[in-house]
Each structure stands twice: as structure tokens, then as C-alpha cells.
Amino acid sequence: MARKKIALVGSGNIGGTLAHLIGLKELGDVVLFDIAEGIPQGKGLDIAESTPIEGCDAAYAGANDYSAIAGADVVIVTAGVPRKPGMSRDDLIGINAKVMASVGKGIKENCPDAFVICITNPLDAMVWVLREVSGLPHNKVVGMAGVLDSARFRYFLSEEFNVSVKDVTAFVLGGHGDTMVPLTRYSTVAGIPLPDLVKMGWTTQEKLDQIVQRTRDGGAEVVALLKTGSAFYAPAAAAVQMAEAYLKDQRRLLPCAAWVEGQYGLDGIYVGVPVIIGEGGVEKVVEIELSESEKAEFNNSVESVRGLIAKSKELMPQD
Ligand code: A3D
Q: Active-site residue numbers?
């Protein structure tokens, strides 16, 4: 059986980490693409030289021409600019909407059958642009945010409870921004929901509220520490989990920025919801019951995504 081909559009901090993880997991051969000459080639060669040590079979190539991504099974997009301290994700829209338009064209012309995972911010709006320009089916274009936001929530909870991260599950819905909705009712330690753990005295409501807020600010916390860019290890791990679910037809239930039409009363928008990812891409949008206050928070988040999509429409080059 031929190895799968995974194209990474953007070979910066996340792109390089993705390339490394994909090789370690032997998910397929990797093509790194970037507009910066030498970066994708250099990172590809460097990682390829680690494969004899790791004992993993994966080929690496670097390119500055879109023809290199031809026939890719999966494309992971990180092209564009990240935040600097003091910036919100939404401040990136002017540059990144134009970048997504060029990436969408490259995908359309070279690998229209790929499963595309977008990471570039502001996430939900950038997935929308990518899908619009590439013309791929909605179920094959998805955004990575919920897996990362949920992982941050899980990590903070595991610290608070002093239990293994393996036993903590968590759900974060909505747009990937300050309005994201961490759902405490659907988050558990080995199946025990967080509100029950408060009743059991494992934590207090006040501490839980602080953890929810820290989750919302999780990206900014790393940006403030790094000063030169944004998080990349955890975002790359999250996207690799989504790519693996598709390539191995795992049917994982993961929170992703997916196209929602009908579910949750929405009439066609990209926003963070639980979905099943398998060989068909996004095979199902899972509609969970929300309380009145959760609904209000989710709708608030949807409105903010709508605003960003409208702005992206104005910024997209017309041709
Ligand atoms: P960075 O290390 O700067 O890498 C971006 C790369 O994109 C650079 O190598 C650029 O040369 C390249 N690039 C710029 N324009 C183009 C273009 N037109 N075509 C191809 N390549 C281009 O950034 P990063 O890897 O740290 O972050 C990448 C993106 O991911 C940013 O927009 C971040 O905001 C975003 N991000 C999202 C999350 C989510 O959870 C959604 C988390 C962290 C970062």
C-alpha cells in the first residue's frame, strides 16, 4: 500500500512541529510548503535526518511551488502570520484572509480530493475563506481549535485535581476566540461531571470559573510568555490528532470548526461543534443539548464569528 501524502502549507513554528510529529507517528510522507525560500527545504532535510535515529519511515520534501502538494491526501494550513503580545486573533484578519485566498487556489488546482485542516487565525473565518476559494465539499474542510482549547481545559483540570490527564475529558464549543464556550457540564474526570466534583468538594465553583477563564485566555497566556509568536507544540499535536482520525478512519468524536447547516438552528456557518471524523472527513455534526445559558453563550460566539466572516468577505481579493 502506498504511503499517504501530507502537505503542510506554512512551514513556520506549527508547520515544522507538524512535520516532526507526522514522521514520528508514521502517518505518511510529508511535503512542506512555504513562500519563504529555503525554510521548508531546510526543515524537511533536518527532520529527515532524524528519522534513522527515531527509526521511522517517512520521506520529506520542501517546496515553494504549489505543484509539490499535488495529490495530497491531507493538507494542513498554517500559512500567514501569528499574534504578537497585545494583539487579538481578529487583528490578523487583514493579512491572513488574503493568504487563505492564495492557499485555497493552490489546493483547488493541485489536490481537490484532500482533507483540509486549517489552523490559521482568526480560525473560523479563515476556514470559511479556504472552503469558499478552494470549492471543496464542506465536509472536507475543517478548522482545528476545539481539540486545542479542550486540551488546555483538560490540562488545567488535571492540575487542579492532581489526576492523570488521561482521565480528564472536556468540551469547548463555539468560535476560537474570547467568546469560546468551555462546557463544564460535559467535562468529566473518568465520567464524573465537573459540577458533581464541585459538590464532592474536589474544587470550588470559584476555582472552576477561574479555570474556564484561563482556558479562554490560554492562547494569550502563551503569546505573552513567548513574546515573539504564538503557541505551536499543542496546536500541532491537536491537528495531527484530527489528521490521524481521517487517515485511519477512526471515527473520533472531536470538537472542530465545522460547517453547520441546520444543526443548532444555524443556517450555514463554520463554528466549533462536536463532529465525527472518519474516512469521509466530517461525517456527522453532533448536536448536544444546551442549557439556556450555554445556548446564549454559544449564540454570542456564533455572532462574533459571523462578524469576522463578513469582514473576510470584504477583504478577499475579487477576481
Ligand atoms: P509562523 O511560525 O509565523 O509560520 C507561518 C508561516 O507561514 C511562515 O513560515 C510564513 O513564511 C508562511 N507564510 C506566510 N504567507 C504565506 C503564504 N502566502 N503562503 C505560504 N506560506 C506563507 O506562525 P505559526 O506557525 O506559529 O502560526 C501559524 C498560524 O496559526 C497563525 O495564523 C496563528 O495565529 C495560528 N494559530 C492558530 C491556533 C489555533 O488554535 C487555531 C493556535 C496557534 C496558532
A: 176
